[in-house]
Design goal:
Layout (H helix, E strand, L loop, with lengths): L2 H4 L12 H13 L22 H7 L22 E6 L3 H12 L3 E7 L3 H13 L6 E3 L6 H6 L5 E4 L6 H10 L3 E4 L7 H14 L3 E3 L7 H11 L6 E9 L3 H4 L9 H4 L11 H10 L8 E8 L4 H9 L17 E7 L4 E7 L11 E4 L2 E4 L4 E4 L20 H5 L10 H15 L7 H8 L1 H10 L5 E2 L24
Parallel strand pairs: 1-2, 1-4, 2-3, 4-5, 5-6, 7-10
Antiparallel strand pairs: 7-11, 8-9, 8-14, 9-10, 11-12, 12-13
Helix pairs in contact: 4-5, 7-8, 8-16, 12-16
């Protein structure tokens, strides 16, 4: 993955006077530390009851809130010839992802929104350069996205803003009858995750976690191999977001103000679990025959950002007023209902090469990424890793048809956009849904609670309300246009 691709992490950057600089100042006091409502819905005590195994964890699971609508499991999109998209947030991430929406046939970018006019104007110019009509432009302050969501000619709202806004923007989109896709994390509190689940069910609108790293070539190949039984009975997996962001977090221009760095003054847990959790959850059919039931987390001391600041930031820089509490390395163990174990890691504050780990093991062997290598019986013997490139026959159809996709993250971003827009055009059930979004994001608040409780297990809610027990399809799809 090249450096530019690694930096596309759901953020805004660039111009002064933007939404994040104002909002960070406004929200810091109200959401600092444990004031995030982290104990909501059955986890009000930091020290959870001991979890003795998957059966006990399932039995001890706090009752889910009463469903306010029907499940969204298996609910298809409404088919349409053209998917009309509104994009909110046009910084680093949104400003590059618009290129991918414009590259997919049958997609029209109808409206763009960013309080920094220059960003919105650059995005609008890309739309017209692609041969589409000029989009509506919303730049009238940080709440103008509400007017975009009220439009009657938008089917899908894409949100690529700082994390503080994700929950409210997803909520607003659904209340206005729009399907919505949000960069990770989709929300930061358990009660917010439940509210998005309930709202998706009530409004019959899909709410999805984008930038989930599930559409990478290696990830999709391993997914198909796992489902074909090449790894045997699955036992364990691992995923991570280990990415040295110190320079970027102290860069006054890359992020839109200090918003991302400030989260390191508020939480101690895994701030960005989705990249690592999503792919392994797919391998193990989480929410599709198995489910995540508990999480146990530990964290190292918080030293990296302060040390970087000492070496690189001048006296008088605003960052000197900050006290960092976020663990430099967070390690979590997730137990599933079938007894499998998933290890998650998060580290953006210390020097190391980029890695999402991406590992899967079973009774017949193991795959490990960064670098990609495999060892499965009977193909491999003598404790020597095998060449993963020899398993190209197991590539997903998306990668067979789009062998050299454009965009960041090694092409997986394009694959996600292409497939999501295809499902919307053809009226298909999406590959991932609001229950996946909530599950993949739940380690944010729960890992914080577990670390505070010295590693005590925390219950992961069953956001599906029992629907996880039935096997169903996910990202291991067949090409609907070749059937």
């Amino acid at each position: 993955m090249n450096d530019a691709a690694q930096r596309h992490d759901g953020t805004q950057g660039g111009d002064e006077g933007s939404v994040s600089r104002r909002s960070v100042l406004r929200t810091t006091a109200s959401v600092a530390g444990a004031g995030l409502g982290l104990g909501a819905l059955g986890t009000s005590s930091a020290a959870a009851a001991p979890v003795r195994g998957p059966e006990a964890a399932t039995a001890d699971q706090p009752a889910a809130p009463k469903r306010q609508g029907a499940t969204m499991v298996g609910v298809p999109f409404e088919g349409r010839s053209t998917v009309r998209v509104g994009i909110v947030g046009l910084g680093n991430r949104g400003g590059s992802m618009i290129d991918l929406f414009l590259a997919v046939t049958g997609v029209q970018v109808v409206a763009v929104c960013d309080p920094v006019k220059a960003k919105a104007q650059r995005a609008a110019a890309k739309v017209t350069a692609a041969g589409q009509p000029a989009p509506a432009v919303y730049t009238n302050g940080e709440d103008d996205y509400e007017n975009l969501c009220k439009r009657g000619d938008i089917d899908f709202v894409y949100v690529a803003t700082p994390w503080d806004f994700h929950f409210q923007m997803a909520k607003t989109a659904m209340l206005n009858g729009k399907h919505v896709g949000v960069e990770c994390p989709i929300a930061l509190q358990l009660d917010q995750l439940w509210e998005l689940v309930d709202l998706s069910e009530r409004t019959r609108r899909h709410c999805m976690q984008l930038e989930n790293c599930c559409y990478g070539r290696n990830e999709m190949r391993v997914l198909r191999m796992a489902h074909a039984g090449l790894f045997g009975d699955l036992l364990h997996g691992a995923g991570a977001y280990n990415h040295d962001l110190r320079g970027l977090m102290f860069d006054p221009d890359y992020y839109e103000g200090p918003w991302r760095r400030l989260w390191h003054t508020r939480l101690r847990g895994d701030l960005y679990p989705n990249h690592g959790f999503g792919p392994v959850a797919n391998y193990m059919d989480i929410n599709r025959g198995d489910r995540a039931v508990s999480i146990t987390s530990v964290g190292s001391p918080s030293l990296g950002l302060a040390e970087y600041r000492e070496k690189n930031m001048p006296a008088g820089d605003p960052s000197w007023k900050e006290t960092y509490i976020e663990s430099d390395r967070t390690i979590s163990l997730v137990q599933t209902a079938k007894g499998r174990v998933i290890r998650l890691e998060h580290d953006v504050s210390t020097p190391h090469p980029y890695s999402r780990i991406n590992s899967l093991g079973g009774t017949k062997g193991v795959f490990e990424d960064y670098p990609a290598r495999i060892y499965i019986e009977p193909d491999h013997t003598n404790d020597s890793w095998g060449d993963f490139s020899k398993y190209q026959e197991w590539d997903h159809w998306l990668w067979k048809e789009h062998a050299n996709p454009p965009g960041g993250h090694g092409g997986m971003d394009y694959m996600l956009v292409f497939r999501l827009m295809q499902c919307m055009r053809l009226g298909l059930v999406p590959d991932f849904d609001v229950y996946d979004a909530a599950t993949w994001t739940s380690p944010v608040p729960l890992s914080h609670l577990s670390i505070k409780a010295k590693g005590a297990p925390q219950q992961i809610p069953d956001f599906t309300r029992g629907k996880w027990k039935k096997a169903r399809s996910g990202m291991d799809s067949e090409n609907p246009e070749k059937a």
